[in-house]
Design a protein that fits this description.
Elements (H helix, E strand, L loop, with lengths): L23 E4 L7 H7 L4 E5 L2 H4 L2 H12 L3 E5 L8 H14 L3 E6 L1 H15 L25 E5 L11 E6 L4 E6 L7 E4 L9 H20 L23 H23 L4 H21 L3 H12 L17 H6 L3 H7 L4 H10 L12 H15 L16 H8 L3 H4 L8 H10 L5
Helix pairs in contact: 1-3, 4-5, 6-7, 6-8, 7-8, 7-12, 9-14, 11-13, 12-13, 14-16
Bound molecules: nicotinamide-adenine-dinucleotide (NAD) and fe (ii) ion.
Nicotinamide-adenine-dinucleotide binds next to α2, α5, β6, α6 and α10.
Length: 436
């Protein structure tokens, strides 16, 4: 699928091109030891190291701290990142960043940590009322006015790809749903992706983040093609997420191939270094891909599920607060979506199924949604995912509330390959109640 593929044919009002952003990244076992040299190379003398409470006392943060100390980079630690951040937790992190008086940032953690660091860097560098930069129509949607300070992102989970994106996601308490801040300026300057970190990952975190990665790749390939995106801003104002494009296609296909081969193995065996390393790389590829292509329905619908679930706990995540891991909320809305969107682009859905390792014998374009949906269900079963939204306590009588929760997500929902209204959203949630 090249740039001139018919899927990307220009139409009247098409933008003249698409823009790709990504960090300078280093991938390989042991590269966390390069944090200090990278900080010096960026001219940093004093950095704020962001992490979460659990990781703060662990070996990965210790490695990065040692590397910074060896390079004589003064380091101040912020370990109060909330797992699944909120507007309140981001504001607290921003206050810390403003007072820390640093010339750069290092984040060591999963998506929660890297996203919190991006937001803290933004508000400390360009102070503004919190809602100013939050996606419109929920927030002001104002452009980030200039560069932020250098940020070295060190992911410790294998799924979000946040080390490669200009996206910071959080739950807005007043809305009880997730939203975000998006700007190419928020892409970390440098990403150090060290698959050694995966050996301490609980299997549930590998499963949830792995499905997040899978969905980033699937949504990139099946998004509305960039010449037909609805946001008309052009040039430097071009949105970060522009729709399916040939660069994202290639990376996402490679990520899906790895997810199909290695996710189940990576979940099942913490000592399977090959599988866990491949998932770490797949997360990076899918992160670069979806940053430019954008997510659509599975993510848009997941935000309502995360906001409305009560009393849900998963081993490997912090005790004491109800929490649906992001990737779990996303995968629960996968098979139902693929069955619905496949007729819009059957070749692309079939291509995704093939990359994921689905049984393709005799499959025709008419079967695309079913083949892809069934392959995802097969992997959900093999990794202990819940059987649909019913398992989280949702039923027919919650469908209306779920649809209302998803409506503020039209920014991503409009990136879907088909037009979606409230009735379709309700049907999609209904179809996600139970899968087997
Ligand atoms: N910015 C983006 O582009 C983007 C993309 C996808 C998701 N997200 C966001 O990222 C957040 C989720 O991030 P996540 O899924 O990476 O998980 P997380 O950061 O929320 O961490 C989950 C749990 O895993 C633990 N953990 C992390 N690394 C570990 C390790 N190596 N060993 C042992 N335990 C470890 C954490 O302490 C925590 O308890 C959500 O808020 C989601 O919306 C952001
Ligand atoms: Fe995600």
């Amino acid at each position: 699928m090249g740039c001139c593929h018919a899927d990307f044919a220009q139409v009247e009002e098409s933008d003249r091109g698409f823009t790709l952003g990504m960090p300078t990244f280093t991938f390989g076992a042991g590269v966390l030891a390069e944090a200090g040299d990278n900080a010096v190379d960026l001219g940093l003398k004093r950095v704020a190291l962001f992490t979460d409470r659990k990781l703060a006392t662990g070996e990965h943060v210790a490695k990065v701290k040692a590397s910074l100390a060896a390079a004589h980079v003064d380091t101040i630690i912020y370990d109060e990142v909330a797992i699944e951040p909120t507007d309140a937790s981001l504001k607290q992190a921003a206050r810390f960043a403003r007072e820390a008086n640093v010339d750069g940032y290092v984040s060591v953690g999963g998506g929660s940590v890297m996203d919190t660091c991006k937001a803290a860097n933004l508000y400390a560098t360009h102070p503004a009322d919190f809602m100013t930069y939050v996606n419109a129509p929920i927030g002001g949607g104002q452009r980030v006015p200039g560069p932020v300070k250098p940020h070295i992102g060190c992911p410790t989970t294998s799924g979000t790809g946040s080390e490669a994106t200009g996206i910071a996601i959080f739950t807005l308490a007043s809305l009880n749903a997730k939203t975000g801040i998006i700007s190419r300026r928020l892409i970390p300057t440098i990403a150090l992706i060290d698959p050694d970190v995966t050996k301490t990952l609980p299997s549930n975190v590998v499963a949830a983040t792995g499905f997040d990665c899978m969905s980033h790749a699937l949504e990139s390939i099946t998004a509305r093609a960039w010449p037909r995106r609805l946001n008309p801003a052009k040039g430097v104002g071009r949105p970060v997420s522009q729709g399916a494009n040939s660069f994202s296609d290639a990376l996402a296909a490679q990520a899906l191939d790895a997810v199909g081969k290695y996710l189940v193995r990576a979940v099942g065996d913490a000592s399977d270094v090959e599988a866990r390393t491949e998932m770490m790389y797949a997360a990076l590829l899918a992160g670069i891909a979806f940053n430019a292509a954008g997510c659509h329905l599975p993510h848009g619908l997941s935000y309502a599920v995360s906001g409305l679930t009560r009393d849900w706990h998963v081993a490997g995540y912090p005790d004491g607060k109800s929490l649906v891991p992001h990737g779990m909320a996303v995968v629960l809305n996968n098979p139902s979506v693929w069955r619905h969107t496949a007729p819009a682009h059957p070749e692309r859905h079939l291509h995704c199924a093939r990359c994921l390792g689905a049984e393709m014998r005799g499959a025709t374009l008419d079967d695309a949604g079913e083949v892809l949906g069934s392959r995802v269900i097969e992997m959900m079963k093999a990794t202990g995912m819940p059987n649909g939204l019913t398992a989280l306590g949702f039923g027919e009588k919650e469908i209306d509330a779920l649809a209302t929760g998803a409506e503020p997500q039209y920014r991503v929902i409009k990136n879907a390959p088909v037009d979606i209204g409230r009735d379709e959203i309700k049907s999609l949630f209904r179809a996600a109640l139970r899968y087997w």
